Amino acid sequence: MSGHIFFADTYFGFDDALYAAVRLIDLVARGDKSIGDMRDALPQMVNTPEIRIDVAEERKSAVVYTVKQSLLAAGAEVNDIDGVRVSRDGGWWLLRASNTQSALVVRCEAQGEDALEDLKAEVIAELNKAGLAVDRLEPSAGH
């Protein structure tokens, strides 16, 4: 979502915009499709903007940990590289502690509006189980 692209394939494994541009040019040059055709072939997704939920600095990491434990206990497949990312059929959601504010950050992405609403409802349920009173996820949501 941030526009950063990290390569660990035939490269050193870090973010490099010029290298990403060269790789894209190479892909187009070697292929038989235009860049527009390649873009059109990608799944059409809908997503939330970055949603920040104000949480005390000393509590934000504990909330993420509590949500992670709840998800693992329920058998969810969790990626915990930067917070908690849960993949669902056709979408995903992410909850992480902000590095710059006393806040939690939430993002969701799905293949349609109904699926996106389902993912947002799952995040809300997990946050409520972790002790936060959250009733909706909106870009200006806060505590």
What attributes characterize this protein structure?
6 strands, alpha+beta, single chain, 4 helices, six-stranded antiparallel β-sheet, 143 residues, 2 domains, globular, 38% helix, TATA-Binding Protein
Tell me what the structure shows.
With 143 residues, the protein is α+β, with helices and mostly antiparallel strands. It folds into 2 domains: 1-42, no CATH class; 46-129, TATA-Binding Protein, CATH 3.30.310. 38% of the residues lie in helices and 20% in strands. The chain has 4 helices and 6 strands; from the N terminus they run ααββαββββα. The protein has helices spanning 17-30, 35-41, 57-73, 113-129, and strands at 46-47, 51-54, 78-79, 84-88, 91-97, 103-110. Strands 1, 2, 3, 4, 5 and 6 form a 6-stranded antiparallel β-sheet that branches. Strand 4 (84-88) and strand 5 (91-97) form a beta hairpin. The longest helix has 17 residues, at 57-73.
Strand content: 15-25%
The assigned CATH architecture of the largest domain is: 2-Layer Sandwich
Average pLDDT metric: 89
The amount of helix comes to 25-40%
Which structural class do you get from the secondary structure elements? Answer: alpha+beta
Q: Give the CA-CA distance, first to last residue.
A: 24 Å
Low-confidence segments, given as residue ranges, are none
How do you describe this structure in short?
The protein has helices at residues 17-30, 35-41, 57-73, 113-129; strands at 46-47, 51-54, 78-79, 84-88, 91-97, 103-110.
